[in-house]
């Protein structure tokens, strides 16, 4: 009887320990036929990995430390489904790699992470920054605007519909401020309405060396206002971005994709997005129109629009089709992108399949 009781207690202890610790494997496998037109390198048709959502595999885990405190981690790497390669050379967990603690006062994490500015854009874009209709076509969602290494983040709990987050990425150079990046976001959600303001600032100064003097540049600043309103038949979406300073709005494709006048990244611009997403039949419709107002002397404005449909075969597998087009003004160099590519022309088509696990 005593042995049975001891065995029961032991099994219960093991079960409790397993319940307190969890590790999950997750991922997305996405491949599409992508066709691009309008640039000097087009027409071009190819198989692309991650046109809708970047293909990836990740490991996510947490441990209950007691007293309402828990530890968590994420390791996530990108993969190219078309070739089987990593999507970033000489890097394993290039997408996310962080560890942190979470409690009643919020959560703190250290490592390679998304910026609050990018997370706000993903949430408001009907295309979630993927497909040919991506907000990447005109909004500066590239480079360190998306994610940063050596980053400390804080996310608050939700209180009366409000929440916030902060991020600070260390430059790790001889000068403390050189190369650093910081930002944050504040949001409010209640019923059908969701509002958010996000900010991102990056220092691209170059520290002095034994052979070259220090190089000072203006701070690149991105401010984003977003609003979403959920109706019975659709969700209406709005975004307004202000980009000022050096490298605030780098071009997705900086290789002069149209020839002729060299496109110049705007150092003072405004971007606006109006869109909607709506469940239709067994899938979801995505649509948006965008405008870029370049307020520099180059006046390289642009207009863009996109439409797409994701047909759900199941909760985890879907087929999709998408179209995007850009009208560039005064030699502007914006290209129709997708989630993993910056694009080569002003018109793009996607036809693909996506599976999540």
UniProtKB/TrEMBL annotation:
Membrane topology summary: Multi-pass membrane protein
All residue ranges annotated as the Porin domain in the record: 6-330
UniProt xrefs under SUPFAM superfamilies: Porins
InterPro entries linked to this entry: Gram-neg_bact_OMP (IPR050298), Gram_neg_porin_domain (IPR033900), Porin_dom_sf (IPR023614), Porin_Gram-ve (IPR001702), Porin_Neis (IPR002299)
Subcellular location(s) of the protein: Cell outer membrane
Record's keyword terms, sorted: Cell outer membrane, Ion transport, Membrane, Porin, Signal, Transmembrane, Transmembrane beta strand, Transport
Main localization of the protein described in the UniProt heading: membrane
Residues of the signal peptide: 1-19
Domain of life: Bacteria
Keyword Nucleotide-binding set for record: no
Subunit structure: Homotrimer.
Stated name of the protein: Porin
Gene source species: Massilia aerilata
């Amino acid at each position: 009887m005593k042995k049975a009781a001891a065995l029961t207690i032991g099994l219960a202890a093991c079960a409790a320990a397993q319940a307190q610790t969890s590790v999950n494997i997750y991922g997305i496998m996405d491949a599409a036929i992508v066709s691009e037109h309008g640039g000097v390198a087009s027409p071009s048709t190819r198989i692309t990995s991650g046109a809708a959502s970047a293909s990836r595999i990740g490991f996510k885990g947490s441990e209950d430390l007691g007293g309402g405190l828990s530890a968590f981690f994420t390791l996530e790497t990108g993969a190219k489904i078309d070739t089987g390669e990593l999507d970033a050379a000489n890097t394993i967990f290039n997408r996310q790699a962080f560890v942190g603690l979470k409690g009643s006062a919020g959560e703190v994490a250290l490592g390679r992470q998304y910026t609050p500015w990018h997370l706000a854009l993903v949430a408001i874009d009907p295309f979630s920054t993927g497909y040919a209709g991506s907000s990447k076509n005109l909004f500066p969602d590239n480079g360190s605007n998306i994610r940063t290494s050596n980053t400390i983040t804080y996310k608050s709990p939700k209180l009366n519909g409000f929440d916030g987050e902060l991020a600070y990425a260390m430059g790790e150079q001889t000068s403390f401020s050189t190369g650093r990046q910081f930002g944050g976001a504040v949001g409010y959600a209640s019923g059908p309405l969701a509002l958010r303001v996000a900010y991102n600032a990056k220092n691209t100064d170059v520290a002095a060396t034994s052979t070259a003097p220090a190089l000072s540049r203006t701070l690149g600043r991105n401010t984003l206002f977003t609003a979403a309103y959920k109706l019975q038949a659709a969700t209406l979406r709005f975004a307004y971005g202000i980009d000022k300073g050096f490298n605030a709005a780098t071009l997705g494709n900086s290789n002069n994709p149209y020839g002729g006048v060299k496109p110049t990244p705007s150092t003072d611009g405004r971007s606006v997005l109006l869109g909607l997403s709506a469940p239709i039949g067994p899938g979801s419709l995505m649509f948006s129109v965008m405008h870029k107002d370049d307020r520099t002397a180059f006046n390289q404005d642009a207009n863009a629009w996109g439409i797409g449909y994701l047909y759900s075969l199941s909760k985890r597998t879907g087929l999709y089709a998408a179209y995007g087009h850009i009208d560039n003004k005064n030699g502007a160099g914006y290209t129709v992108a997708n989630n993993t590519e910056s694009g080569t022309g002003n018109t793009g088509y996607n036809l693909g399949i996506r599976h999540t696990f």
